[in-house]
Amino acid sequence: MDYIQGKFLKIDLSKNEIAEEMMDENLFKYYFSGSGIAAYMLYKEKTYSLSSFSPEMPLLIIPGFLTGTPIPSACKTSICSKSPLTNTWCESTVGGYFGAELKRAGYDGIYIIGQAVKPVYIFINNGEVKIKSAEKIWGKDIYIASKLLKEETDDKSIIMCIGIAGENLVKISGIAVVKEYNEMRAAARGGLGAAMGAKKIKAIVARGTGDIKFSNKTELIKSVKSYIPSIKENTSAFSKFGTAGSVPGAEISGDLPIKNWRGMSWEEGANKISGQTMAEKAFVKHHTCFACPIRCAKTVKILSGPYQGEETEQPEYETIAGLGSMLLNDDLATLIEAADLCNRLGLDTMSTGAVIAFSMEAYENGLITEKDTGGIKLNWGNREAILNLIPKIAGKEGIGVILSEGTKNAASHIGGVSREFAIHIKGLEVAFHDPRLWATMPLNYATANRGGCHLESLGYLAETGRFNPSLLGFNSDRTWEENIEMSIKLQDFMAALNALGICKFVLLGGIGPEQITHWLNLTANWKLNIGELLFVGARIYNLKRVYNNKIGFSRMDDILPPRLLTSGRTKGSFAKKNPQLDRMLERYYQLRGWDEFGRVKNDKLKELNLDNLII
Ligand code: SF4
Asked: In the list 16, 198, 301, 304, which could disulfide-bond 53, CB 3.0-4.6 Å?
């Protein structure tokens, strides 16, 4: 293969075995790489019938097909397995520098099975791979562990690491990627930190100095360069404030969830914790992911608590919603401190914010008392409550034992009416874009393969025109039917983008499927058209759906929590447009080629050339 190395690393921790495998070139043509190839491998091996913590369950770490090339924002790595939180297909995708470094070290992916006897880390150094003891760093926070690992290996290593939450098998734990101390990106969703912890892997350390293979280098660089100025211009606000800059606008439109999704407006609070306010009060510097001209990442100063004065990641939009508006926490210092704590401990800030919001509502309803919390009053916006609960969740202490299982499981445990306000889809706490405002988001959330995920279609960006829907062939003035068609096309496009390793925010820079296809063709010497790119995306999307079908997920799981279906917001330009989800689902299944129960039909699999995977 002259456009990709094609080599995967296969590790069996139970047997302490390390091997290399050259992948069949056709797999890259069929699934690109990243979450696409992962879907194929996990499905083919029938891992849907395994438990997520079983030693036989593979953990796959696969950079996107284009990751490491000069294509803008081609930096992503997908971590895939069966979710410990939701029991569904799970992909959690992370930016930063790990994927490019892994490729430079000689590998296009890592496949890990088994379970180590004692904590380990895996050191991948320019084609040489060692499984080393992590006993000295087990129990350390992500930043400290990364620092120690850099000292022990190479200062230029890129570290993929779990925190104490992952070690403790907390189901809302994530995996961090660290380049520099206090700078991290996270594969946060779905509890894959616990999947890594179950294998007793504290970290994977990559160091590579080789070249990354791709074709037509000169032409590709020339083409990419010509788009950088317009990408920068179109994303200048994003560059300036990060995703955090969207908070005030989201509050005005009614997209921002408030007080566990039942608040109507919170203008003053939103402004106090926005990216604009952080730029004034805490900003230190901009940083970025591999090959990304947008530079949405920021470093800020910690304004309170034990790490006051140190630097940390600026909380992003989703984190601000989770640890801010969802909890009515309008104190910037508390927000930054809480986000930093989650990062250090390896918790998903979104699920953590959501489960704390849930616990505050349970407290308000007398379903949790101070006896349960060790005397902490779980009042809305209470700084002490937020900062106390986070380490309790990561350490599975006291009330944290229940909350560490995620909102759905916590509600089952607490009982009473708590399930009414446990806001999750298929067990994943819903991402913080209010589906009541959008024509496509209810469908997107209900059918997203990993549960309540906004990234599987980004419909809200297309509906506002921030990603131009005409690039996928849709007008701004769409019929009901066209909205469903657009949802499907967006899902397929996002599945393809994810497998390619491109950050979806590049779409805000005016880049669309035409440009992506052109760059892909240059890189791999292929001759795909946009339809064929979307066809691969459809293949991947459907394969993840069949995986879930095999576990037993069907139409009855494609639902939204009652609060998001029936309680129309009174604020915002889209207010009171409650989704007609049932009707939409029926048509969506027809257009998808699924049966009335939401199962992918064999004919559909044949149409996608997946005959060999019909089981
Ligand atoms: S837009 Fe932000 S998240 Fe995406 S690649 Fe660039 S810096 Fe990373």
From this structure: 198
User: Both 255 and 181 in a single domain?
Assistant: no
Measured CA to CA, the distance from residue 322 to residue 432 in angstroms comes to 7
Report angle CA 610, 613, 615 to the nearest 5 degrees. Answer: 135
Tokens of 534: 């979307």
The domain of 36 spans 7-207
DSSP 159-170: EEE--HHHHTT-
pLDDT tens per residue across span 506-559: 999 999 999 999 999 999 999 999 999 999 999 999 999 999 999 999 999 999
DSSP string, 265-311: --HHHHHHTSHHHHHHHTEEEEE--TT-SS--EEEEE--SSTTTT-E
Same domain, 142 and 18: yes
**Interval 184-207: pLDDT, tens:** 999 999 999 999 999 999 999 999
The pLDDT value given to residue 580? 78
Query: Which residue, 389, 414, 429, sits at the end of a domain?
Result: 429
- Pocket flag, ligand 1, residue 73 (CB < 6 Å): yes
- Among 500, 486, 489, smallest CA distance to 71 is for 500
**Mutation pick for ligand 1 pocket among 76, 92, 295 (CB with most ligand atoms within 8 Å):** 295
Distance 410 CA to ligand 1 centre (A): 33
Tell me the residue length of the chain.
615
Q: Is the CB of 410 under 6 A from ligand 1?
A: no
**Of the residues 414, 429, 444, which one is the last residue of a structural domain?**
429
Residue 220 counted as domain residue? no
pLDDT 10s digits, 369-407: 999 999 999 999 999 999 999 999 999 999 999 999 999
297 in contact with ligand 1, CB cutoff 6 A? yes
- 286 torsion bin: left (phi>0), alpha (psi -120 to 50), beta (else): beta
Examine the domain organization and report whether 493 and 379 are in the same domain. no
Nearest residue (CA) to ligand 1, atom 6: 292
Same domain, 128 and 35: yes
85 and 199 belong to one structural domain:
yes
Q: Is the CB of 186 under 6 A from ligand 1?
A: no
Whose CA is closest to atom 5 on ligand 1?
A: 73
Q: How many domains does the chain divide into?
A: 3
- Looking at the structure, tell me whether residues 173 and 112 fall in a common domain: yes
| Half-sphere exposure at residue 596, Cβ-oriented, CA atoms within 13 angstroms | 0
Minimum-distance ligand 1 atom for the alpha carbon of 505: 1
Distance CA 356, CA 310 (A): 25
Same domain for 562 and 477: yes
CATH number (domain holding residue 587): 1.10.599.10
The band of 436, judged by pLDDT with boundaries at 50, 70 and 90, is confident
Closest atom of ligand 1 relative to the 297 alpha carbon: 7
Specify the CATH number for the domain of residue 272.
1.10.569.10
